[in-house]
Design a protein that fits this description.
Strand content: 5-15%
Number of helices: 5
Largest sheet: 2 strands, antiparallel
Helix content: 40-55%
Structural class: mainly alpha
Shape: globular
Length: 116
């Protein structure tokens, strides 16, 4: 069983660029910074896992993503809303829609279209 916030990273990245290319370029620069820190054995450079629409520094920045993340953990579980920003550099290569048809396991694919 697997849960992923998106089925096609390339399509998500295209939508993000259409909303704000400047935001995506800033995330990519932060991702390179985080990757270099990791190679030097330093602490990760983190950003917000989700943010409100237009909020800079958040990987997905939409009202739906932010509100959805707030509902995920139980209230007694701490939620730091942080992610290592190098994840943005792997986004175009995450393509579950391409890999899934080759899987021998049955699957259920609920689709939420407003995440990115």
């Amino acid at each position: 069983m697997s849960q992923a916030p998106l089925a096609d990273g390339r399509a998500a990245l295209v939508r993000m660029v259409k909303r704000s290319a400047t935001h995506v370029l800033g995330l990519c620069a932060a991702g390179v910074r985080d990757t270099l820190r990791a190679r030097r054995g330093r602490e990760p450079y983190t950003g917000k896992a989700v943010g409100r629409r237009g909020e800079h520094g958040a990987v997905p920045a939409t009202a739906e993503a932010y509100e959805g993340m707030l509902r995920l953990p139980p209230s007694d579980v701490p939620n730091d809303n942080e992610v290592s920003v190098r994840v943005i550099l792997s986004l175009p290569f995450f393509r579950a829609v391409v890999a899934a048809p080759g899987s021998p396991a049955p699957g259920l694919v609920p689709v939420e279209t407003a995440l990115v």
